[in-house]
Specification:
Blueprint (H helix, E strand, L loop, with lengths): L15 H5 L5 E6 L9 E6 L8 H10 L1 H13 L10 E5 L7 E6 L10 H18 L3 E4 L11 H14 L6 E6 L2 H14 L3
Parallel strand pairs: 1-6, 2-4, 2-5, 5-6
Antiparallel strand pairs: 3-4
Protein backbone atom coordinates (compact mmCIF):
# COMPACT_ATOMS: atom_id res chain seq x y z
CA UNK A 1 0.00 0.00 0.00
CA UNK A 2 1.10 3.59 -0.47
CA UNK A 3 2.73 5.66 2.25
CA UNK A 4 -0.22 8.04 2.10
CA UNK A 5 -2.60 5.50 3.60
CA UNK A 6 -2.27 2.07 5.17
CA UNK A 7 -5.59 0.44 5.96
CA UNK A 8 -6.04 -1.10 9.39
CA UNK A 9 -8.57 -3.79 10.18
CA UNK A 10 -9.74 -4.39 13.76
CA UNK A 11 -8.73 -7.71 15.28
CA UNK A 12 -5.85 -8.38 12.91
CA UNK A 13 -3.27 -8.51 15.73
CA UNK A 14 -4.01 -12.23 15.87
CA UNK A 15 -1.81 -12.86 12.84
CA UNK A 16 0.77 -15.59 13.43
CA UNK A 17 3.55 -13.57 11.79
CA UNK A 18 3.20 -10.91 14.48
CA UNK A 19 3.64 -13.45 17.27
CA UNK A 20 6.60 -15.12 15.59
CA UNK A 21 8.56 -11.85 15.46
CA UNK A 22 7.53 -10.43 18.84
CA UNK A 23 10.24 -8.81 20.93
CA UNK A 24 9.92 -7.02 24.23
CA UNK A 25 8.70 -3.50 23.61
CA UNK A 26 10.00 -0.76 25.86
CA UNK A 27 7.31 1.58 27.18
CA UNK A 28 8.46 5.08 28.08
CA UNK A 29 6.61 8.11 29.43
CA UNK A 30 7.45 11.76 29.00
CA UNK A 31 5.85 15.15 29.31
CA UNK A 32 6.04 17.22 26.17
CA UNK A 33 4.82 18.13 22.73
CA UNK A 34 4.08 15.07 20.60
CA UNK A 35 4.60 17.07 17.41
CA UNK A 36 8.28 17.60 18.32
CA UNK A 37 9.09 13.89 18.80
CA UNK A 38 11.89 12.31 16.78
CA UNK A 39 10.32 8.91 16.22
CA UNK A 40 9.36 6.79 13.25
CA UNK A 41 5.63 7.30 13.78
CA UNK A 42 3.47 9.72 15.73
CA UNK A 43 -0.04 8.59 16.62
CA UNK A 44 -2.70 11.22 16.08
CA UNK A 45 -5.83 11.23 18.22
CA UNK A 46 -7.84 12.19 15.15
CA UNK A 47 -11.48 12.96 14.63
CA UNK A 48 -13.30 10.74 12.16
CA UNK A 49 -13.19 13.34 9.37
CA UNK A 50 -9.36 13.02 9.25
CA UNK A 51 -9.32 16.69 8.27
CA UNK A 52 -7.87 18.18 11.45
CA UNK A 53 -9.50 19.48 14.57
CA UNK A 54 -8.50 20.60 18.04
CA UNK A 55 -6.03 19.25 20.57
CA UNK A 56 -3.42 16.77 19.34
CA UNK A 57 -5.16 16.49 15.96
CA UNK A 58 -5.00 20.21 15.26
CA UNK A 59 -1.41 20.48 16.51
CA UNK A 60 -0.23 17.65 14.24
CA UNK A 61 -1.97 19.15 11.20
CA UNK A 62 -0.60 22.64 11.94
CA UNK A 63 2.99 21.57 12.56
CA UNK A 64 3.04 18.85 9.89
CA UNK A 65 1.85 21.19 7.17
CA UNK A 66 -0.34 20.69 4.10
CA UNK A 67 1.06 17.28 3.07
CA UNK A 68 -0.78 15.57 5.96
CA UNK A 69 -4.09 17.23 5.09
CA UNK A 70 -3.62 16.33 1.40
CA UNK A 71 -3.00 12.67 2.31
CA UNK A 72 -6.05 12.67 4.60
CA UNK A 73 -8.21 14.16 1.84
CA UNK A 74 -7.01 11.40 -0.48
CA UNK A 75 -8.06 8.80 2.13
CA UNK A 76 -11.49 10.43 2.45
CA UNK A 77 -11.89 10.41 -1.34
CA UNK A 78 -10.88 6.75 -1.66
CA UNK A 79 -11.52 4.44 1.30
CA UNK A 80 -13.02 6.55 4.06
CA UNK A 81 -15.80 8.54 2.44
CA UNK A 82 -17.75 8.54 5.70
CA UNK A 83 -14.65 9.06 7.82
CA UNK A 84 -12.39 6.74 9.79
CA UNK A 85 -14.39 4.63 12.26
CA UNK A 86 -13.49 4.74 15.94
CA UNK A 87 -10.95 2.08 16.93
CA UNK A 88 -9.33 1.84 13.49
CA UNK A 89 -6.02 3.31 12.35
CA UNK A 90 -4.51 4.50 9.10
CA UNK A 91 -1.13 6.03 8.24
CA UNK A 92 -0.13 9.05 6.19
CA UNK A 93 3.04 10.95 5.57
CA UNK A 94 4.23 13.06 8.51
CA UNK A 95 4.80 16.10 6.32
CA UNK A 96 7.11 18.53 8.12
CA UNK A 97 7.15 16.62 11.43
CA UNK A 98 10.39 14.93 12.54
CA UNK A 99 8.60 11.57 12.26
CA UNK A 100 8.29 9.55 9.05
CA UNK A 101 4.58 8.78 9.43
CA UNK A 102 1.46 9.88 11.25
CA UNK A 103 -0.84 7.08 12.32
CA UNK A 104 -4.35 8.47 12.68
CA UNK A 105 -6.74 6.73 15.07
CA UNK A 106 -10.17 7.82 16.23
CA UNK A 107 -10.82 7.30 19.91
CA UNK A 108 -14.30 6.78 21.29
CA UNK A 109 -16.16 9.47 23.20
CA UNK A 110 -16.49 8.36 26.83
CA UNK A 111 -19.92 7.17 27.90
CA UNK A 112 -20.95 6.35 31.47
CA UNK A 113 -23.83 4.24 30.15
CA UNK A 114 -21.99 2.20 27.48
CA UNK A 115 -18.66 0.36 27.83
CA UNK A 116 -16.47 1.51 24.93
CA UNK A 117 -13.16 0.35 26.41
CA UNK A 118 -12.65 -2.29 23.69
CA UNK A 119 -12.83 0.48 21.08
CA UNK A 120 -10.24 2.54 22.98
CA UNK A 121 -7.97 -0.52 23.30
CA UNK A 122 -8.37 -1.10 19.56
CA UNK A 123 -7.00 2.40 18.87
CA UNK A 124 -3.68 1.38 20.44
CA UNK A 125 -3.61 -2.17 19.05
CA UNK A 126 -4.45 -1.04 15.52
CA UNK A 127 -1.93 1.80 15.66
CA UNK A 128 0.79 -0.69 16.61
CA UNK A 129 -0.33 -3.06 13.85
CA UNK A 130 -0.05 -0.27 11.29
CA UNK A 131 3.33 0.77 12.77
CA UNK A 132 4.49 -2.82 12.38
CA UNK A 133 3.39 -2.87 8.72
CA UNK A 134 5.37 0.32 8.15
CA UNK A 135 8.46 -1.06 9.86
CA UNK A 136 8.39 1.65 12.53
CA UNK A 137 10.64 0.96 15.49
CA UNK A 138 9.63 3.94 17.64
CA UNK A 139 6.06 5.17 18.08
CA UNK A 140 4.86 8.19 20.05
CA UNK A 141 1.35 7.99 21.51
CA UNK A 142 -0.87 10.66 23.04
CA UNK A 143 -3.49 9.79 25.66
CA UNK A 144 -6.23 8.91 23.16
CA UNK A 145 -9.75 9.98 24.21
CA UNK A 146 -8.49 11.52 27.49
CA UNK A 147 -8.99 15.11 26.34
CA UNK A 148 -12.15 16.57 24.86
CA UNK A 149 -13.62 13.04 24.49
CA UNK A 150 -13.85 12.91 28.27
CA UNK A 151 -12.35 9.52 29.11
CA UNK A 152 -11.44 9.30 32.84
CA UNK A 153 -7.66 9.68 32.97
CA UNK A 154 -6.78 6.70 35.19
CA UNK A 155 -8.91 4.35 33.09
CA UNK A 156 -7.51 5.79 29.84
CA UNK A 157 -3.98 5.20 31.14
CA UNK A 158 -4.78 1.64 32.25
CA UNK A 159 -6.31 0.73 28.88
CA UNK A 160 -3.46 2.34 26.94
CA UNK A 161 -0.63 0.81 28.93
CA UNK A 162 -2.20 -2.65 29.21
CA UNK A 163 -3.01 -2.82 25.49
CA UNK A 164 0.42 -1.64 24.38
CA UNK A 165 2.27 -3.91 26.81
CA UNK A 166 0.37 -6.96 25.53
CA UNK A 167 0.73 -6.21 21.80
CA UNK A 168 2.71 -8.63 19.68
CA UNK A 169 4.73 -6.54 17.27
CA UNK A 170 8.24 -5.57 16.24
CA UNK A 171 8.01 -1.99 17.54
CA UNK A 172 10.94 -1.43 19.91
CA UNK A 173 9.65 1.57 21.85
CA UNK A 174 6.18 2.88 22.57
CA UNK A 175 6.59 6.39 23.95
CA UNK A 176 3.63 8.00 25.67
CA UNK A 177 4.00 11.76 25.27
CA UNK A 178 1.71 13.41 27.79
CA UNK A 179 0.97 17.10 27.44
CA UNK A 180 0.78 17.97 31.14
CA UNK A 181 2.72 16.93 34.25
CA UNK A 182 -0.58 15.83 35.83
CA UNK A 183 -1.31 13.39 32.99
CA UNK A 184 2.28 12.12 33.12
CA UNK A 185 1.88 11.49 36.87
CA UNK A 186 -1.31 9.50 36.24
CA UNK A 187 0.33 7.37 33.55
CA UNK A 188 3.41 6.83 35.76
CA UNK A 189 1.25 5.72 38.70
CA UNK A 190 -0.77 3.32 36.52
CA UNK A 191 2.41 2.04 34.86
CA UNK A 192 3.96 1.30 38.27
CA UNK A 193 0.75 -0.36 39.48
CA UNK A 194 0.64 -2.64 36.44
CA UNK A 195 4.26 -3.65 37.13
CA UNK A 196 5.23 -3.26 33.49
CA UNK A 197 8.89 -3.59 32.52
Amino acid sequence: MSESGLHARPGSLKSASYRESHTAMRITLETGDITAQRVDAVVNAANSSLLGGGGVDGAIHRRGGPAILAACRELRASRYGRGLPAGQAVATTAGELSARWVIHTVGPVYSASEDRSAVLASCYAESLRVADELGAETVAFPAVSAGIYGWPHEDAARIALTTVSQASCRVGEARFVLFTPDMHAIFARVHAGLKLA
